[in-house]
Structures
1.
Amino acid sequence: MRISVIGTGYVGLVTGTCLAETGNEVVCVDINEQKVQKMRNGEVPIYEPHLDVLFDRNIKAGRLTFSTSLEEGLEHGEIIFLALPTPEDEDGSADLSYVLGVADDIGKRITEYKVIVDKSTVPVGTAEKVQEVIAKNAKCDFDVVSNPEFLREGFAVDDFLKPERIVVGSSSQRATELMEKLYKPFVRSGNPIIIMDEKSAELTKYAANSFLAAKITFMNEIANYCEKVGADVDKVRRGMGTDSRIGKRFLFPGIGYGGSCFPKDVKALHKSGKDVDYDFQILDSVIKVNQKQKTALLPKIKTYFDNDLDDKTFAVWGLAFKPETDDIREAPALYLIDELLNAGAKVKAFDPEAMDNVKRKYEDRIQFSKTMYEALDNTDALIICTEWSIFRTPDFKKIKDSLKENVIFDGRNLYDISDVEKEGVSYFSIGRKDIIL
Ligand SMILES: NC(=O)c1ccc[n+]([C@@H]2O[C@H](COP(=O)([O-])OP(=O)(O)OC[C@H]3O[C@@H](n4cnc5c(N)ncnc54)[C@H](O)[C@@H]3O)[C@@H](O)[C@H]2O)c1
Ligand SMILES: O=c1ccn([C@@H]2O[C@H](COP(=O)(O)OP(=O)(O)O[C@H]3O[C@H](CO)[C@@H](O)[C@H](O)[C@H]3O)[C@@H](O)[C@H]2O)c(=O)[nH]1
């Protein structure tokens, strides 16, 4: 099939590449000329494991091409995916200007039947709005379908190729059949394509993300309570997670959820509720608890250093909002770094993939290190913000030899308490007992 993808970010590029992998001819359109030039030169503009292999293979096979021209994209594709940003607006709602702006252009330009697929995360009623905007100018038939994306960054290719489910919101038989044909190769393992109305599809995405954000937040509250009463959240997590009704996943406490999705999507659903006079009380709490959780290590650090962080230097391992990505949007590490800088401290940071993005934001306000151990030189303490695999079995002797104060503040509970006890370092984590030498 001939497919066009408008917006070539994390979702658009993965969608375009994976659809080319199953034999479709895909044109990826992006407004960012530099990005398009990079992709034309064979360069993947984001860090996403395994994407490079598929990207390269499909470019060489002539199935994946790139353009800055929406017109070209619209001429090419019978199915047009919109994978455009829907960032948080000032009032917490999803900013639909990118989606509706492109919809307007589509209405003015299409000359034959197209299926316009909304892959961006958008509030209930957006498919209807897109339909209206296109219909203002369109001189041919078209259908608008809602097809929310559930991929996770860091596992995006795997998630797209082997989705647990594909949700298609459509009220058109013709469009539904085309979507089923397109996605057939991805559901061979028996996972379903769930067809529903557009509004339910739009809400499914927000409900899934908000539920997961609430699950994490619930565990963060349990962890905070563990600290007050001397229980161990790791043990509680294992005890709870073995109940299949609860499940083991997304129960890991830490310094809060971040990223380009959970924070904005929880806020957008909360705001959508307000718009129809519904008060999402759970979401209100989730937002507030998570905001505070991002700096949960700060009181521990301040107490350890007697409230005097002035001129202390902290090594920070992990800047990305989670491992296996270079994405720093709403990363808890950055909230903590801001607080440390405000308190007069200095920061030496290391992250395997996200340092370039952080450099653009912080410039020379913090130092960057080439290796995780270099970050420890002449620093007072180590803070861990992201659970990259390489931090999981560190050389504790090197850590002890380098740090001025022999102490680790771990926002992701990377180490077993009993193991750290044997290593002889002071250790503060989330929802577990402190080790104070
Ligand atoms: N990142 C994720 O893991 C993820 C997962 C599921 C859903 N989503 C949703 O998918 C949507 C896209 O997210 P993303 O992370 O891929 O965003 P992104 O910011 O990584 O990419 C968006 C791309 O759109 C391009 N763009 C902006 N305006 C354009 C225009 N007028 N024409 C063509 N291109 C244009 C930008 O240059 C950018 O390359 C959002 O609604 C997001 O909530 C994201
Ligand atoms: O037990 C857990 C699991 C996750 N997190 C944090 O939650 C955030 C989000 O993690 P994850 O869901 O793995 O990353 P995303 O790539 O943001 O993916 C989410 O957001 C995407 C965009 O909407 C959806 O498509 C995915 O299904 C959804 O998992 C990160 O900060 C994690 O550190 C925890 O604190 N504890």
2.
Amino acid sequence: MQETLWTQAPRRNQNLVQVIQSYYQLTKPRIILLLLITTAGGMWIAAEGQVNPLLLLVTLTGGTLAAASANTINCLYDRDIDYVMERTRHRPLPSGRVQPRDALIFALALASISFSLLVVFANLLSALLAMSGILVYVLVYTHWLKRHSTQNIVIGGAAGAIPPLVGWAAVTGDLSWAAWVLFAIVFFWTPPHFWALALMIRKDYASVGVPMLPVVEGEAATARQILWYSLLLIPVTLLLVYPLHVMGAVYAVVALLLGGVLVQKAWQLMQAPEDLDQARSLFKYSILYMMLLCAGMVVDSLPVTHQLLSFCTEHLQALISAIPMLQGLTV
Ligand code: HEM
Ligand SMILES: CC(C)=CCC/C(C)=C/CC/C(C)=C/COP(=O)(O)OP(=O)(O)O
């Protein structure tokens, strides 16, 4: 395809604010926020609730720059199909507001700053993990799988699961089992998250020949897969409680409630796989799910939560021993 078919003519005469806005949009900022929340979740558990604020700031900044770089390269690579799809045709590259060469320089600069920041102020492992996130997203997902396999987002989803590893590595300098469970949580969450959205925009993907699951196998098969991954996600989230013992009762309750609602929504979708409202509701909930699950991790790992729980346990114990009928019970 010729370049002129991929983009509108370069847009000249943009003022500085418009230029900044265009580069900002190139980075898909709204997605980055949730990626950062998962990074922070990893840091909180790794630091057992007591994260060094400076390390938090540096790691989140490095993570932001790496994800921004990855998203910019994805926009650059996909500018041909983005030009055709209604949802994406107003992005900075297809609309001619940013030139491909400038986007590439921008992405490389972001990746270099991210790597330097993480190496100097966190550690080498976290910097290498952030760079591997860019590589997996660009090479494995965007280049290799997105246009060739219905399992594109399952395997490519590994890229989106790397941010909690970056957070964990920044705190401890290595990766424990718990870090890999965090990776698995985002990995198994990605299919319900993305396929719900893909059900809503399947015509767009079909128009450019991207073989997303709903396009190739239809709505019912996609809804079934969403339900399986949602069911699998519940035991995976609970691995942090047992056998790893890095999370306690507060997180366990949050994970069970959130997982229960996810499964319920997936079940409702399976009853009416063509209902776009059900798919939209599941997609929106998937984002809330991940935010609240990470909030649950943070709250559970705070020292004040532990103090509060042992205070309640002690008083419950005292109350039980004061009631003759209940003597013999222990909490
Ligand atoms: C391969 C894995 C993934 C794919 C293919 C995917 C795909 C998408 C797509 C196509 C959108 C709509 C974006 C738009 O219209 O501009 C979206 C939205 C979103 N994604 Fe994902 N996603 C993936 C993984 C993730 C991960 C790991 C996170 C964060 C943990 C995430 C967070 C979000 C958020 C927060 C939105 C909503 C953005 C908004 O408010 O518009 N995604 N995702
Ligand atoms: C550590 C690190 C830097 C990790 C990178 C993680 C990362 C940037 C994940 C993004 C996942 C995502 C939004 C995919 C959508 O791409 P798409 O091409 O399917 O979306 P589109 O159709 O909207 O362009």
